[in-house]
């Protein structure tokens, strides 16, 4: 066991998308906004973990905060479909029990991750999509949101650019459309959890679902192995069964966490995909692995130790 793997205790990591995130392409003001947003979420989350909060509650709250921030492509600020609509996906998973909840193509919901948690707590199903998920939200009285709140002018401009013949903007490529958000954590009991939420990709066909809400693709948690939240080219992550590959490499192949993530990401790259993930195991620090120019990511450890990074050359 390495020194990294021997460390336990509470820890939290969050991400806000991976792609062509480079210093010469990102305005200094946006750089600061992103770092501040990630740091705020980490400070609150690690404080809750140190106070004894359950890990599933913490990852849900972390992702909900990022959904509310229009800097990211999830919840408010979601990418727009070819029809100019918002369709959001989210999932979360409890590593202790492997209970999970997921939703896809939901509309008019403020926090898709909260709706996914309701699916988990209801226990009848694991995954609800489209009108069925929307109806479930209405039955619950889940917090709603109008398009006037969810849709930002930046996303409208991105859709107009994509539909005018410019290259379609994907969350892995455009720093203005920072993508999928996610969180992984370990609580004081040693339990793991993961949560992921996304608004998809600009100009996607209505009804398209990426990897984020798919257990074993963009989201996974099992105390016996790891918790994972991915971001990037969803189709490739689906075809590579990314999060399952990380889990299997640890559970069957006995690889350490970083090697497992790198091996799984190589499968994504072999399919022409790009992106990355954050991950955590029962022991050791959370980590981020990605094959893009940058990834918005942050780590919080006990005692208020917080680090945030955007670019590849940052630790």
Summarize the structure in words.
This protein is 34% helix and 24% strand. Strand 7 (219-222) and strand 8 form a beta hairpin. With 315 residues, the protein is α+β, with helices and mostly antiparallel strands. The radius of gyration is 18 Å and the shape is globular. It starts with a helix and ends with a strand. Helix 3 runs antiparallel to helix 4 (112-122) and helix 9 (242-251) packs antiparallel against helix 10 (257-270). The protein has helices spanning 3-6, 28-50, 55-67, 112-122, 130-140, 147-150, 153-163, 234-239, 242-251, 257-270, and strands at 11-19, 88-94, 100-106, 127-129, 181-186, 192-198, 219-222, 226-232, 275-280, 287-290, 294-301, 305-311. The chain is built from 10 helices and 12 strands. The strands form 2 sheets. The protein has an 8-stranded mixed β-sheet with strand order 4-3-2-6-5-1-11-12. Strands 7-8-9-10 form a 4-stranded antiparallel β-sheet, covered by helices on one side.
Note the main attributes of this structure:
315 residues; eight-stranded mixed beta sheet; 12 strands; four-stranded antiparallel beta sheet; disordered N terminus
Quick synopsis:
The chain has 315 residues and is an alpha+beta fold. It is built from 10 helices and 12 strands.
Q: Biggest sheet, open or closed, and with what strands and sense? A: 8 strands, mixed
Helix content: 25-40%
How large is the count of helical segments?
A: 10
Question: How far from one another are the termini?
Answer: 22 Å
Percent strand equals 15-25%
Cα shape = globular
